Amino acid sequence: xxxxxxxxxxxxxxxxxxxxxxxxxxxxxxxxxxxxxxxxxxxxxxxxxxxxxxxxxxxxxxxxxxxxxxxxxxxxxxxxxxxxxxxxxxxxxxxxxxxxxxxxxxxxxxxxxxxxxxxxxxxxxxxxxxxxxxxxxxxxxxxxxxxxxxxxxxxxxxxxxxxxxxxxxxxxxxxxxxxxxxxxxxxxxxxxxxxxxxxxxxxxxxxxxxxxxxxxxxxxxxxxxxxxxxxxxxxxxxxxxxxxxxxxxxxxxxxxxxxxxxxxxxxxxxxxxxxxxxxxxxxxxxxxxxxxxxxxxxxxxxxxxxxxxxxxxxxxxxxxxxxxxxxxxxxxxxxxxxxxxxxxxxxxxxxxxxxxxxxxxxxxxxxxxxxxxxxxxxxxxxxxxxxxxxxxxxxxxxxxxxxxxxxxxxx
Length: 411
Hints:
Distance between the termini: 22 Å
Protein name: MFS transporter
CATH class: Mainly Alpha
Strand content: under 5%
InterPro entries: MFS_trans_sf, Sugar_transport-like
Transmembrane segments: 21-43, 49-69, 102-125, 137-160, 166-186, 218-237, 257-277, 289-308, 314-333, 375-394
CATH architecture: Up-down Bundle
Radius of gyration: 20 Å
Number of domains: 1
Structural class: mainly alpha
Largest sheet: none
Helix content: over 70%
Keywords: Membrane, Transmembrane, Transmembrane helix
């Protein structure tokens, strides 16, 4: 298949796949926790399992690249099979909707599978999307994904507002979305794994890039500092507004609107501009700006005491999340050699998963000794520290680093 044809086909399938992916975003960000709190009244352990599921899959992704290399499979079909397995797990939750542990484990394993295959998708973007348009094409599908999440957010909020027992229909929507997403991924160009420059198939082989590549190492440290603060705060958005013991106790519809619809709507309208910015501005600069917006959003949300401040905080968080999604999903394509993108991404995903596993239990444990407001200040400080760290590194960058992390460069 010619490169232009591969690009068109990848973009077409990813555009359609973004619709079920948006439904799953709504589940992971709002409806999973909302049902856990309002229907099953689950404790911190069960909620932490759900909130940590995506992170568990990201950690496992470190082993996906070498296992694929051993299997001599194609990237797209392997990713598709993992997505369909996630859909099957969520279907199990839908089959037994009144069993709290089946609900938690079914949705959690579904999210686990979807996050585990992310490095494979990043490798596909690197191979099939041209460098100068990668951010643009990725962000267009991000807009569609956000629109689907917003639409499903309205639908799910309306459904639960009519009768909370309607959550069973949502479970079937999540399961169907998993299978539909897998089918579109299966139809992507069947790229055989080509790693002729390096035949290392050890399960931990991807970690060697942390030692070899200083720029990669620097950005990983910055992501860790920022991610801990951001993920702790994100774990508590629904808890803060929905749990009666914290004093706010908003109705289901309002919680879904504020935490599910508002940020995704802002993400939808700003994804495309962030994609253009990513293609034209240096990575260090983009990352620093995003960190500041994230910190401000978290502080406004938790320090504010009205619907306006909660919506404003979530709107700014969605704005930053749009740019964060683009940079998180594509920044390794600026650094990694063509054959090693999946390995770079698997290391990045592994560390994202590690902090994601730590964040929910840390968040709930912190609430035992401090208020939401104090915790939000700590989270904001951690995020701003990450910006300061990469700013210092950017000012001392050599010509090679500026070339690699600047706009429009190809390795």
